């Protein structure tokens, strides 16, 4: 099998990660070269053992290049993708794929006309914590799930340089928000019916430094999505409630717990506890006999890893693991979150 030759356009943090880790360890594709507008990054690519190109046109004119990975600031994806597709290259694009739904539609129209493949690298579908929650949901390990909380917290502000600027597509909704929203839509696989949100600007940037969104799915599942960059105490990465249990994953180290009813015993009423200046049964922990704790077990993805899938889509007509209509749904949802935050209103989705 001959590997697919990729050129990485944009050799910053994510482009370098693709070259060294994701593509570098892959049996299906290889990093054939690198292009970046900055000479110092091209020099770093050469030090890392990759050939470099002086211009994007040089990349697109090379017949040995089969595919392009776009890992540039968000506002440049649209132009680079369309040029690459028209030059006969297949394209993988980092996310958020574009600055608007209309820009994505432009790209997809060109991909159809040129009969080239275009896929977005939604890599966090393969995160271990997400795969575990997906298993809980699909196997009803907590019973039927009715509420999902998904959040990431940090205390270092907005990273990098261009991520602070609106014109480049900066801000946390277009950064981490893309990941968390894609995970939820891939998990629940139901249309969003209702959106309410609030964006944070406490750090003084022109773009959001965090956000909170409340989503209601067509099947009634409610989701709380939160990204924060000024949180010195983190809340759990995942908190999932079902009719027969609760699951919590604290962080990417997969610490946490699952508590479910112990159905082998007769009901034992909880013992009242002192709560402040009063007593409560309602908020008392359940009797030890009534619940049991289950281990959190790692789960293998039941779908192929990204670059293998992309190779098979191009060469074997396989089904994309990240479908473009799913990516479009994420952009539609992001627009609704921005609208809700701006208007202070609940957005009813069609």
From TrEMBL:
GO terms for molecular function: nucleotide binding. Residues 131-246 form the GFO/IDH/MocA-like oxidoreductase domain. Residues 4-121 form the Gfo/Idh/MocA-like oxidoreductase N-terminal domain. InterPro entries: Gfo/Idh/MocA-like_OxRdtase_N, Gfo/Idh/MocA_oxidoreduct, GFO_IDH_MocA-like_dom, NAD(P)-bd_dom_sf. It comes from the Bacteria. Gene3D superfamilies: Dihydrodipicolinate Reductase, domain 2, NAD(P)-binding Rossmann-like Domain. It holds the Pfam family GFO_IDH_MocA_C3. This is Gfo/Idh/MocA family oxidoreductase.
């Amino acid at each position: 099998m001959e590997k697919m030759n990729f050129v990485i356009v944009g050799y910053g943090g994510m482009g370098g990660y693709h070259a060294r880790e994701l593509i570098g360890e892959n049996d299906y594709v290889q990093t054939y070269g690198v292009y970046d507008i900055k000479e110092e990054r091209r020099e770093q690519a050469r030090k890392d053992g990759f050939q470099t190109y002086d211009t994007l046109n040089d990349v697109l004119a090379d017949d040995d290049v089969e595919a392009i990975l776009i890992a540039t600031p968000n506002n440049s994806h649209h132009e680079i993708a369309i040029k690459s597709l028209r030059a006969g290259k297949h394209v993988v694009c980092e996310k958020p794929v574009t600055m608007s739904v209309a820009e994505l539609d432009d790209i997809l129209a060109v991909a159809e006309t040129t009969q080239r493949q275009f896929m977005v690298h939604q890599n966090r579908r393969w995160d271990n914590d997400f795969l575990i929650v997906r298993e809980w949901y699909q196997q009803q390990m907590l019973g039927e799930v009715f509420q999902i909380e998904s959040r990431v917290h940090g205390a270092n502000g907005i990273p990098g340089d261009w991520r602070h600027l609106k014109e480049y597509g900066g801000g946390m909704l277009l950064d981490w928000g893309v990941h968390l929203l894609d995970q939820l839509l891939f998990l629940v696989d139901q249309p969003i019916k209702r959106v309410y949100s609030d964006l944070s600007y406490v750090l003084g940037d022109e773009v959001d430094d965090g956000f909170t969104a409340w989503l209601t799915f067509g099947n009634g599942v409610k989701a709380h999505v939160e990204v924060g960059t000024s949180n010195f105490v983190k809340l759990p990465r995942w908190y999932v409630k079902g009719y027969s249990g609760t699951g919590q994953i604290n962080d990417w180290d997969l610490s946490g717990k699952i508590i479910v009813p112990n159905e082998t015993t007769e009901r034992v009423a909880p013992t009242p506890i002192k709560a402040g200046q009063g007593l409560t049964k309602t908020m008392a922990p359940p009797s030890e006999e009534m619940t049991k704790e289950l281990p959190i077990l790692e789960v293998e993805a039941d779908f192929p890893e990204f670059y293998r899938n992309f190779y098979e889509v191009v060469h074997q007509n396989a089904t994309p693991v990240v479908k473009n209509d799913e990516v479009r749904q994420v952009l539609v949802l992001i627009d609704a979150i921005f609208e809700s935050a701006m208007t202070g209103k609940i957005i009813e989705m069609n």
